[in-house]
Design goal:
single chain; alpha/beta; binds pyridoxal-5'-phosphate
């Protein structure tokens, strides 16, 4: 093939390329199903933009207080439409997923309330938000208590444990869709719906919030469609489509969004302030591209799963199971494996391909983390990126790719690196 010479010029050897192509042969049907999902979600986004009469006037910049920012308000209406929610907060002032989750939680919880996670330990950075790890300014300091019910070994819900944990103080239930840095399975929208139904059958007025990071547009439904009151995510992951340079979103019930907005700005100000500073066009355009970008990332994740599964590594999800987020975990079992994989991803990047990633003590994490990202937007993980905490079981979490071809190249490059280091031997 014409591209073989290019792969060679970029450092992929013939045996590595051949191995990759053999794996791809078996993935045609799955890739077709992903394309179909992208087509559906593309139409969903398009319809929301048309229904809300998006126009070039909405791309104009506002500054200062940002009163009457028509572009911002319409963008929030579009998000509400896409996700079938009553209202939305979509802001560059939500600086990350963690921040958006903090705003949603602290805006809706009051002293004396209890927060429950019925799906085990939440994402690392939330431990300090909640106060699971002592932290100044945590919800715990404000008198919000926390309870957790772990999933069973097989990933199923501990319904009896959840029933016992819900009490008169339980105000908000947080459900994390994606696995984060755990090796449990990601929750499907269907399972999230079952869990919400169960929780509401015990306590109907409890607020069910879903941390939707990495899940957007992977399925044809989202957690709001199955009863979530709030859904939260980052714009430098799926819904920003790679174009949003910053931002987070919270969508959901009107009263929940209103309370969150008073926490984001100030009581009395809420959604009325917050200049969009010229970022609106990238938010709209990124959302427009997101279904296609997510499809490319998903193909990359499935390709990686099949490559490393074939080579005998433990992969979550496995090569054939259904997908509910764009994350792929590969357990290498050694620091060298994690580091080599990340070096390969870095070397495949369009930006900073020449630098070598090293483990470091990132704020918010309890072990050194190595991160590979040669991204146009710093820290963007809808772009091809990999990271892993340097602690057992030495798993790497791989995600993103603005195009499928780049994701494919990144995976081949990581494989090449591990083969060259003698950490992997390709089957004869
Ligand atoms: C990424 C992520 C977060 C935090 O988002 P940041 O933008 O990194 O702060 C929270 N929860 C999950 C499941 C995530 O994947």
């Amino acid at each position: 093939m014409k591209q073989d010479a290019m792969y060679q010029a970029l450092g992929i050897s013939a045996p590595v390329l051949k191995f990759g192509e053999q794996i791809l042969e078996g993935l045609k049907e799955r890739f077709e199903a992903i394309d179909e999902m992208a087509e559906f979600n593309q139409l969903k986004v398009l319809k929301a933009m048309q229904d809300n009469k998006v126009s070039d006037i909405h791309f104009a910049a506002t500054t200062g207080y940002g009163y009457n920012d028509l572009g911002r308000d319409t963008l929030e209406a579009v998000y509400a439409s896409v996700f079938h929610a009553e209202d939305a907060l979509v802001r560059p002032q939500l600086i990350s997923g963690t921040h958006a989750l903090h705003v949603a939680l602290s805006g809706n919880l009051r002293p004396g309330d209890e927060l429950l996670s019925p799906v085990g330990k939440p994402y690392d950075t939330l431990e300090e938000v909640i106060g699971i790890r002592e932290s100044v300014g945590s919800l715990k300091e404000y008198g919000v208590s926390y309870r957790q019910v772990d999933l069973f070994e097989d990933g199923s819900f501990d319904f009896e444990g959840i029933r016992a944990a819900i009490n008169e103080k339980t105000k908000l239930v947080t459900i994390q869709r994606s696995k984060g840095y755990a090796t449990r399975p990601t929750l499907s929208v269907e399972r999230i719906g079952e869990l919400i139904q169960f929780v509401k059958s015990i306590k109907p007025d409890v607020i069910c919030m879903v941390d939707n990071c990495y899940g957007e547009f992977v399925e044809d439904r989202e957690p709001i469609d199955v009863g979530a009151d709030m859904m939260v995510g980052s714009l430098i992951k799926n819904p920003g489509g790679g174009l949003a340079p910053i931002g987070g979103y919270i969508v959901g019930r009107k009263d929940c969004i209103e309370r969150a907005s008073y926490r984001l700005s100030a009581p009395g100000l809420g959604k009325e302030v917050g200049a969009s500073l010229g970022l609106n066009q990238s938010f709209y355009q990124g959302l427009f591209l997101a279904p296609t970008v997510v499809a490319g990332a998903l193909k990359g994740a499935i390709f990686a799963a099949n490559v490393y599964e074939k080579l005998g590594f433990d992969v979550v999800p496995n090569g054939s199971e259904s997908r509910h987020d764009i994350i792929q975990a590969v357990t290498f079992g050694t620091p060298e494996g994690v580091i080599g994989f990340c070096e390969g991803i870095q070397a495949a990047a369009p930006v900073d391909s020449f630098v070598t990633p090293e483990p470091w003590d990132m704020p918010g994490y309890d072990a050194p983390v190595i991160m590979a990202a040669g991204a146009f937007v710093q820290g963007s993980s809808i772009e091809l990126s990999a990271d892993g905490p340097i602690k057992p079981p030495y798993a790497v979490y791989f995600q993103g790719g603005l195009t499928w071809y780049h994701a494919k190249f990144g995976i081949l490059k990581s494989l090449q690196r591990l083969v060259e280091r003698g950490l992997i031997h390709l089957p004869a």
